[in-house]
Amino acid sequence: MDSTAVMRERGVLTLPKDIRERNDFRSGTQFQVIDLGQGTIVLSRQTNVLAELADEIERALSEAGVSLEDLLQAATAERHRLHRERDGE
Length: 89
What we know:
This protein has helices spanning 17-23, 49-64, 68-86; strands at 31-37, 40-45.
């Protein structure tokens, strides 16, 4: 689908509403700008891999019925077990 965007003062470029909605682009969304030359550019949403990973972990925990508190308690118990094992207790 072809859409038109107009550059305004200071380089502000507004993406058409249908594109913003379809791609869930919101205020603050960051883009990588790739210059292909001869006036052709590509905008690519810049992703935060760590944030995406955190979201994926949160979804997996939720689907498994495990809370963050459960996970932290299990990690603490395992750490104590490893310390006791290391110390020969």
